[in-house]
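Sequence design from tokenized structure. All designs in this work follow the same two-part layout: the structure record, then the generated sequence. An example of the structure record is given first.
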């Protein structure tokens, strides 16, 4: 596996490539053209500039997170082919730039959903948190203002004001879309993009829905083992793969994370590894990465990745805000660096245990 950190680009991120370069064991970043809108064609010039900037800092651009999918594609509206054509052009240009991993999600309207961006923990650190009761008390348009208010001036991925300004229209778009229809729209999209992925050896890695259940009555399908296996089988091509995000699948305590990882051998192209601490089945917070700080056994998760021969990029995903850092919620430097180091430590121990057995 290759340890990476997500990086939003020098115009948007509070963390610099030079800082990332100094985290031991981190050799690459996962990045994106953060200023682009879903449905837009990415310019070759911009892709190459991003890659060059990262390489000049001594790091590798290990993949893109995300190339966002336009709502017309997810909702399956009559104009979706135009947006799929744009997506294909972007993939072509990424492939020509020697980029072979693309993370995306297929969540209607909202990207990941949290009800607090800075819950204070007993040690004074702040974390992202979720309470079902808080979501149930909100209307969707209030959800956006509450997120925006807590974001401290940063624009959170998936919560861009341009999109959220049209939230009522977005909801109307999905009025007749249920889980089955969403699966069909995903299949249509994947079948159309697989030829370009085959040509340029691009691994598509779908990110799970977060939380892994329906919010505000919107359909959500990338939530559990049965659905993710259905998704990989319905377009049975190794380039149609998965981002395994322990923090997202883990929101549903019925998901057996190591078992899911083992069932995805050969299709698991990218891993987000982080822990959650459940205070009740409907209230969780994003704890430190250590097993002892949360609900999941992180050793078991890393062992499952090792057992399936996982060799793709991995990243510590969100971190707590510690040591007074000001950054995009979840994306500070310090706690993600601690997370990367911890995960690298687990991996080294697992590797050595196996090679000496
Ligand atoms: Mn994730």
């Amino acid at each position: 596996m290759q340890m990476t950190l997500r990086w939003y680009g020098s115009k948007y991120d509070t963390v610099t490539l030079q800082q990332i370069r100094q985290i031991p064991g981190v050799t690459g970043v996962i990045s994106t053209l953060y200023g682009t809108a879903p449905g837009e064609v990415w310019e070759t010039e911009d892709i190459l500039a991003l890659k060059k900037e990262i390489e000049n800092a001594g790091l590798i651009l290990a993949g893109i997170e995300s190339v966002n999918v336009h709502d017309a594609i997810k909702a399956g509206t009559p104009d979706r082919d135009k947006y799929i054509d744009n997506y294909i052009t972007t993939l072509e240009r990424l492939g020509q730039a020697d980029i072979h991993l693309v993370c995306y999600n297929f969540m209607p309207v909202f990207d990941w959903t949290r009800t607090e961006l800075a819950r204070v923990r007993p040690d004074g650190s702040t974390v992202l948190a979720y309470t079902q009761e808080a979501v149930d008390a909100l209307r969707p348009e209030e959800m956006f203002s509450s997120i925006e208010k807590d974001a401290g001036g940063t624009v959170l991925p998936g919560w861009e004001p341009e999109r959220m300004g049209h939230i009522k229209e977005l909801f109307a778009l999905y009025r007749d879309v249920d889980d089955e229809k969403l699966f069909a729209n995903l299949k249509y999209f994947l079948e159309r993009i697989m030829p370009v992925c085959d040509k340029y050896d691009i691994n598509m890695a779908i990110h799970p829905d977060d939380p892994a259940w329906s919010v505000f009555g919107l359909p959500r399908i990338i939530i559990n083992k049965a659905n993710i296996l259905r998704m990989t089988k319905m377009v049975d091509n190794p380039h149609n793969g998965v981002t395994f995000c322990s923090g997202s699948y883990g929101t549903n305590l019925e998901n057996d994370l190591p078992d899911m990882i083992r069932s995805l051998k050969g299709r698991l192209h990218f891993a987000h590894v982080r822990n959650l601490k459940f205070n009740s089945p409907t209230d969780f917070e994003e704890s430190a990465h250590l097993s002892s700080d949360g609900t999941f056994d992180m050793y078991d998760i890393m062992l499952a990745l090792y057992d399936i021969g996982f060799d793709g990029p991995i990243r510590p995903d969100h971190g707590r805000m510690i040591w007074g850092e000001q950054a995009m919620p979840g994306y500070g430097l310090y706690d993600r660096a601690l997370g990367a180091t911890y995960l690298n430590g687990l991996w080294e121990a697992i590797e050595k245990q196996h090679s000496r057995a």
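Residues 2-356 form a domain with the TIM Barrel fold (CATH 3.20.20.150). We note this feature because it recurs in several other targets discussed in the main text.
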